[in-house]
Amino acid sequence: MSGPSQHANAGGQPAPPADAHQEKRPGIPLGRIGGVPVYLAWSWFLIAAFILLVFTPNVMRALPGIGLGAYAVSFTYAVLLALSILVHELAHALCAKAFGWPNAHIVLTLWGGHTQFGSFHATPGRSLVVALAGPAANFVLAGLGYGLEMTLQPTGVFGLLLNILVWANFLVALFNVLPGLPLDGGRLVESAVWAGTGSQEKGTVAAGWAGRIIVIGIAAYMILLPLLNRQPVDLQLTVVAVLLCGFLWMGASGAITDARMRLRLPRISASELMEPASALPASSVVADIDRRLMQVPGHILLCATSGLPEAVVDRASVDSVPAPLRNTTPSVTVARALAPGAVVRASRSGRDLITYLASLDGSEYAVVDDTGRIVGLLKQGTVVSAITGKKAAS
To answer: Could you please report the per-residue DSSP string of 278-316?
Structure first.
C-alpha cells in the first residue's frame, strides 16, 4: 500500500509541512531522485520481516530444494516491493513538482510509503491527477512485467519473483483506486464534491465517509463472510485484515477530523472567543480591583507604564486577601504573568488568528481593539476547543 501526494501514506490525512523533516529525519536517507529526497523509515524492516516469515514457506514449496536460499528470495521480493512503492510515490512527487508544489519528500514505511509537501495551492483537477499518478505507475509496472513474462516465459527464482511482482503491482494499483480515503482513489470523490461545492473540506469529509464504507466492506468480505459461511478461519489472513482495516479506518477518520477542523476555521475570531476584560495599572492595589469589578464584570489585566498588558488578575488570589489589607496589597501579588508580547487584535480571525497565536508564547492573550484598548482575554484552550469541536478541559 502506498500514499498519495500531499497526504500521509495511503492515509489521506494532510501531512505535516514537508520542511518539518529538516528538524528530524523521518528515516534512513537514501538520496534524491529527480530532486526529491527519499527516506527509509525504520518501520519498513517490520514489513520486510513479515514478508520473510510469510513468503519463505511459499518459496520453499514452489522451488523444492532451494533450502535457506528461500530467505534470500523473500528478502529480494521485499526489496522489489519497496522499489515498486518508490515508483508509485515518485509518480506522485514528480507530478506534483510539475504543478509547482514545493518541498516534496518520500518516506518508505511499514504500510508502504507516503509523499509530503510544503504549503501549496491545489485545484480539484490537479489534486486528482497527482493522486492517481501513483496507481497509474503501478499499473504500468504490472503491464511491463506481464509483457516480460509472456515474452521470456521465465522459470525458477526469476520467474517466481517476476510473477509475484506483477501481481503485487496490479493489486496495489487496484486497491489504491478504490474511491475512498485514505486511498488514492478517494481523491476522485473529494475532487467531485470539491468541484461541485467549491469546498475541498466538504469533499474530504465525503471521501472519508466513503473510505469508512470501504473498510466495512473489506471487513465483511474478509472476516465476517467466512464466519457466516462456517469456513475455517485463516489466522494470517484475519490478522492482516484486522490490521489493514484498522489502518484504513484511522486514515479515513483522520481525514474527516482534519477537514472538519478546517471547516471551522473561518468561523473562529478573537472577538467571538474572548472573555470580557478591562485594564488597570500594575501600580494599583487589590481594592482598585474590587471597585473595577463592581463597575465592569470580567477579567482584569494589569498594564505596565508603557500601556502594555503584563499580567492577569487571579480571582482566587484576590478572594484570599483579607479585607483590612486590600487597600495596601499591590495588585501584582494576586496576578499571574502574561508571556511577553501576548497581545492579539480582536479583528483577527480564521487561519490568520491561528497562525498568529502559534507564534506567541503562553496560553493566555490580551485582546485589544483597533485603538489598542484592552477589551478581552483569550485563552488557548478556548481556541483549541473551537477548532476541534471538543469542550475545553477545565
So the answer is: EEEETT-BHHHHHHHHHHS-SEEEEE-TTS-EEEEE-HH
Q: How many CB atoms are closer than 10 A to CB 208? A: 27
Whole-angstrom distance, CA of residue 33 vs CA of residue 89: 11
C-alpha cell at 144: 511491463
- Give 131-153 pLDDT, tens digit per residue: 999 999 999 999 999 999 999 99
What per-residue confidence (pLDDT) applies to 237?
Answer: 80
Order the strands of the 343-345 sheet from edge to edge.
335-337, 309-313, 299-303, 275-281, 374-379, 364-368, 343-345
Tens of pLDDT along 339-366? Answer: 999 999 999 999 899 999 999 999 999 9
Residues 6 or more apart whose CB falls under 8 angstroms from that of 61 comprise none
User: Could you tell me the pLDDT band of residue 19, with boundaries at 50, 70 and 90?
Assistant: very low
- Which 3 state secondary structure label does DSSP give 234? coil
User: Distance between CA atoms of 264 and 272, rounded to whole angstroms?
Assistant: 13
Indicate the residue type of 30.
L
- What is the β-pairing status of strands 364-368 and 105-109? unpaired
Output the pLDDT for position 224.
82
Query: How distant, in Å, are the alpha carbons of 120, 166, 339 from that of 59?
Result: 46, 16, 64
101-105, 166-170, 201-205, 311-315: lowest mean pLDDT where?
101-105
| Residue environment code for 328-345, b if the CB has 16+ CB neighbours within 10 A, otherwise e | ebebeebbeebeeebbbb
CA 269 – CA 266 distance, rounded (Å): 8
For 309, residues 6+ apart whose C-beta sits below 8 A from its C-beta are 279, 301, 302, 303, 338, 342, 343, 366, 374
| C-alpha distance from residue 25 to each of 39, 44, 108, 182, 269 (Å) | 8, 15, 13, 24, 36
Taking the C-alpha atoms of residue 281 and residue 279, their distance in angstroms, rounded to an integer, is 7
Element containing residue 388 per DSSP (H, E): helix 380-388
**Hey, what amino acid is at 130?**
V
DSSP per-residue string spanning 158-179: HHHHHHHHHHHHHHHHHHHTSS
